[in-house]
Design brief:
Length: 148
């Protein structure tokens, strides 16, 4: 997909992200997570994880970011987690456990990607990543990956 088309997708999803309908905001979270490398999407994604109108938006957006299985998704979740209230944090933690609590391989890869974020020069990322890393380390996965 060319840059212009990607930007048009992000622009449309940003409009959904500010919709009063929670279903639209959930769709925006899932869609924008696919475009998280686009700078404009990042701020909106953090805002959606911290949605103060519906915890379904918080949960769905956090899940979508975690399902990227990359450092960027973890960084955005960590950024949100740094300032989340107790209710938002609870739903973010549920998404973490759902996505990264199934196999030890997924959890371990997330720990490996998250650890450097705890040394970020950005205090908010560092604080959120420390909290996220603690949550990841507390997970006892359902399946253990055997390394040969």
């Amino acid at each position: 997909m060319d840059t212009e088309t990607r930007q048009a997708c992000v622009t449309s999803l940003l409009a959904l992200a500010s919709s009063p309908a929670y279903q639209d905001r959930i769709d925006a979270g899932w869609g924008l997570a696919r475009f998280a490398e686009v700078a404009e999407a990042q701020q909106a994604l953090v805002k959606l994880v911290l949605d103060n109108r519906d915890t379904g938006v918080t949960y769905a957006t956090a899940e979508a970011l975690l399902r990227r299985f990359d450092t960027l998704g973890l960084r955005l979740v960590a950024t949100a987690l740094a300032t989340a209230n107790w209710e938002q944090a609870g739903w973010i933690e549920q998404a973490i456990r759902k996505v990264l609590g199934f196999t030890s391989g997924d959890r371990d890869a997330a720990v490996e990607r998250c650890e450097p974020l705890t040394h970020s020069t950005n205090e908010e990322i560092r604080r959120g990543a420390t909290r996220l890393l603690g949550e990841l380390r507390s997970i006892n996965p359902i399946l253990t990956t055997v390394r040969r």
